[in-house]
Amino acid sequence: MRLLSALAVDDELPALDEIGYLLRTSGFVERVVSVADATSALRELRDRSFDLVLADIAMPGLGGLELASVIGRFAEPPSVVFVTAHAEHALEAFDVGAAGYLLKPLDRDRLEPVLRRVLAGRAPTFAAPAEHVQAEPDTTGDEDQDHLDIVVVEAAGKTVLVERKDVAWVESAGDYVRLHTFDGRNLLVRVAMGRLEAAWAAEGFTRIHRQHLVNLRAVRELHGDGGRVFVQLPDVTLAVSRRHVRDLHDQLVRLARRHH
User: What's the whole-model pTM score?
Assistant: First the structure.
């Protein structure tokens, strides 16, 4: 299996050492380079290729968001994951195409699912496990598929059935959606977000942002910071748009009452 090459960027040396240690001891990473500022990161990116950049947001000089904006203009940009002590920048992070947003202090349980997702998204189709490849739901000859209780993934001569209950959150990707499962899988499926939202609304999924649909059972925490609201899922923090805050809160309360 092809492993990841990672570049860690943080001006706080203890945090940089910890990120580097977690990456070097991960089974998903084969090469790690650590630098203390964004300018050094750009030099490294100029001289060699990386699959993944893990960056702090608040750094002297060029910050993490600006670094991600520059990386986004590369012909073949690496995935960017932010590792920060501040939850309030989550919306800006996803606006610049971040693949993840992790809060400090970082630990292996939250980092490993993100590494799995990045690795899955960069694996070549011919070599990837079937559950990680791009595919389309099979909608031929099955009226029940309109409910999308199970998404049928056909790839590399194999069929993988992804159950709705196994999906933690959904990310819009143009004409596709990316399904993020509780066990860390990452599946790109050609289906409209609106169709998925309508089909899964009665089963505990709700829209929190124009780009994100979440399984209410995956929500670990709802919190505010600087006038913004965020949901904490098992491996990612997502921003909630203002128009969805009240509905999300009410649905979480109803779900909690049903389980007590």
Answer: 0.51
